[in-house]
Amino acid sequence: MPKKTKKEEEKKECCRWDENHHRDRFAMGLIVGIAVGVFLIAVGLALSSFVGTFSVIETRVVVNSNGAGDLDDDGEDVDEERDEDVNDDEDANDEEGEDTDETGDIDTSGVEINMADLETIQTSVDNGSQPWRLDPIMVASADGVQYGFSIEDTYRLSMEPTIGEGSGTGEAEVEVDHGSKTYVIQLIQSVKTGDDGVWAINSIRVK
After folding, report:
1. Among 1, 67, 128, 200, which one has the highest count of C-beta atoms within 10 angstroms of its own C-beta?
2. What confidence category does residue 26 fall into, taking pLDDT thresholds of 50, 70 and 90?
3. Residue 189 — φ and ψ, nearest 5°?
4. Cα–Cα distance for residue pair 56/33, rounded to 1 Å
5. 197: phi > 0 → left, psi -120 to 50 → alpha, else beta; which?
6. How many angstroms separate the most distant Cα atoms in the chain?
7. Which residue has the higher pLDDT, 194 or 35?
């Protein structure tokens, strides 16, 4: 068998190197191609998600600009839900306000008089305290607040203090202009009659 020359050995070695080099370059190109493909797919998914989110936001902005109201997380109209809550509250207020007048803020259902408290007040006035409780107008404006009146309303004496024929107690009436209506507050002296007797609200009615 003829012996290969050194030149032939070098040529064969060079061919083997070229073959390996080409194989490595092909493998590297394949890896780079796969990596680029994965990157492009990821970018495409991200853009698709962004466009979808932007479309939802744009839709909500258009809906709000057209006066349809705000949307909650579930896409339901918040204004519609709010209107339903307001209507429910109004219905509840109507049911609770059966004992009030048409304005809805003056309680005309009745007045409860606590004689023990009035006797304590009378004693305090006899000792020189709270002298304003001897004036029916002052009592009507001060105690009337708890029934819905305001100290800024207009108060005037409509019936001078007198002794009631049936009750035997001091009686007086004060008219109050509240909103668009006029009310009559009746006051009585249930502990002591006369100039030294304290006044207390006995009833409230619309004139």
Report:
1. 200
2. confident
3. -110, 95
4. 35
5. beta
6. 157
7. 194
Question: What does the pLDDT average to over 125-137?
Answer: 97
Instruction: Select from 66, 44, 71, 78 the least CA-distant residue to 56.
Output: 71
Q: Model's pTM, two decimal places? A: 0.51
Kindly list the structural domains of the chain, giving each domain's residue range(s) and its CATH number in brackets, ordered by start.
115-206 (3.10.450)
Cα of 108 vs its chain's centroid, Å: 29
Predicted local confidence at residue 9, as pLDDT: 67
CA 32 to chain centroid:
60
- What value does the mean pLDDT take over residues 17-40? 75
Angle, CA 109 vertex, CA 107 and CA 114 arms, to 5°: 95
Contact predicate 125/117, CB 8 Å: no
- Cβ burial, residue 176 (10 Å; 0-12/13-18/19+): buried
Give CA separation, 47 vs 21, 42, 51, 60, 183, in Å: 39, 9, 6, 20, 71
Specify whether the backbone of 194 is left (phi greater than 0), alpha (psi in -120 to 50) or beta. Answer: left
